[in-house]
Amino acid sequence: MELLYHSTRNSSPLVPASAAILQGLAPDGGLYVPQHIPAYTRPLSELAGMSYRETAFAVMSLYLTDFTREELMACIDGAYGARFDIPQITRLKEADGAWFLELFHGETIAFKDMALSILPHLMTTAAKKQGVSDEIVILTATSGDTGKAALAGFADVPGTRIIVFYPKNGVSAIQERQMVTQKGANTFVAGIHGNFDDAQSGVKAIFGDEAMREELAGAGKRLSSANSINIGRLVPQIVYYFYAYGRLLEDGVLKAGDPMNVTVPTGNFGNILAAWYAKQMGLPVKTLLCASNENRVLADFFGTGCYDRNRPFVLTNSPSMDILISSNLERLLYAVSGEDTKAVAGFMAELSSTGRYAVTEEMRGGMKDFVSGCATQEETLGEIRRLFTDAGYVIDTHTAVASFVYARYRKETGDETPTVIASTASPYKFTGSVLEALEPGDGNAALSDLEKADRLCAISGVPVPAAVTALKDAPVLHDTVVDAAQMKALVRGLLLGADRA
Q1: Strand residues in 26-159 grouped as ranges (E)
Q2: At what angle do helices 231-250 and 270-281 cross, to 10 degrees?
């Protein structure tokens, strides 16, 4: 039976997966969700012997039911190959009593590679299935990682163009350099004066401009998104947790049916939502630890039931989590409200007008599997230092937020359930902060970013990834910086010509 999708804010119309992937965001501004979350009915014991590609097909085929087996396998094989520096795509590393799922072995050394590498394949296949000949324009906002991974995935893909906005002073130096040196005749990158929420709000406003959408359609162009608001991004993330469970079975840590916990450093809520979806499908996930940095809007939400973005925005050493509007939370609200699209639309309208909303006690009960915690910047650096000292394992700042939150949870609760921590970036993605943790003081302050990478290599013994060394002589190809209010005009100018901007 075909699984259809609709907006979190309206239960009609129903569209197939290919149409939902192409559109990205529903016309009413909502996020696409499946009519129901499909059950994973194969024996869990089989996961132990499955490769990443095999696991991806077993999970994704349940959601993308209008893709043929051949079409979906072609997407999977096209995505999960030479782009990754280890043949198994990702691996599970035990350190200090936790299992770190290394999601950073792709060409941009961050977890977004895992889901974004397949999105261009899904999208171009979906366009053919839908009979779409328009140019697909990927428009996305990034807090650092999505942008580069999307740029790398869509660069020079026929029939597509990609425009990425990022907060000019809100990403790491390596993240920015990865984006502004991106090659590809169909790529465009712009910094904005503002934070990620400003960039994301600007992108959503463009998607919500019906007149502009019609004008673009008249010019043979169709907007879509590479953010995790796109169901084509979310579904591949669910695979992570089935694969991790398989590795724990394979290593004898678990027996089929035993529970595991999952800890995720969380900003836009997509990665941990994927783990929740996996749980609803039947994967034995016990507790979902939602780890926040000092922008602790999600930690406060799970603690109080009130989502309130009316607070100071903090630029931290885990910048990809510097987010006050966690878009994917809307999908969880839809589920725990009893799939009440009107209620979700009301919450989102309230968030837009007042910056806050409060859920019911019944909805909070539906989120009981989530436990939240946060880490300060000092605690983050301290966790990097502790794990390296105690276990000889180097992690980045975002993974350190999750590791710190898990260690505190474990100590306070005594919960010894085997726990997978989503390791979302290579330590070389945030070399300056990692080096500051391992060698406190000003001794390395004068080094360039690439010199810091060499220094981190000398300390840790972990080789510098090719993705970093390749930046050394890469020319800057994108130097546009605009105010957030100018984003729409810039996009119109790029797509429709300056005379119509």
Answers
A1: 32-34, 91-95, 98-102, 135-141
A2: 60
Which run of H or of E encompasses 479? Answer: none
Q: Compute and round to an integer the Cα radius of gyration of the chain.
A: 21
452 in active site: no
Residue ranges per structural domain of the chain:
91-107+238-469
> Domain 91-107+238-469 adopts which CATH fold?
Rossmann fold (3.40.50)
Torsion of CA 264, 426, 445, 469, to 10 degrees: -160
- Rounded-to-integer distance, Cα 152 and Cα 150, Å: 5
Which residue among 112, 204, 429, 452 is the active-site one?
112
- pLDDT tens across 47-66, in order? 999 999 999 999 999 999 99
Non-local CB neighbours of 104 within 8 Å, separated by 6+ positions: 110, 111, 113, 396, 423, 424, 425, 426, 429
Helix (H, G, I), strand (E, B) or coil at 196: helix
Instruction: Give residue 350's identity as a one-letter amino acid code.
Output: E
Look at residue 500 and tell me whether its pLDDT is greater than 70: no
Residue 329 exposure: Cα atoms within 13 Å on the Cβ side: 27
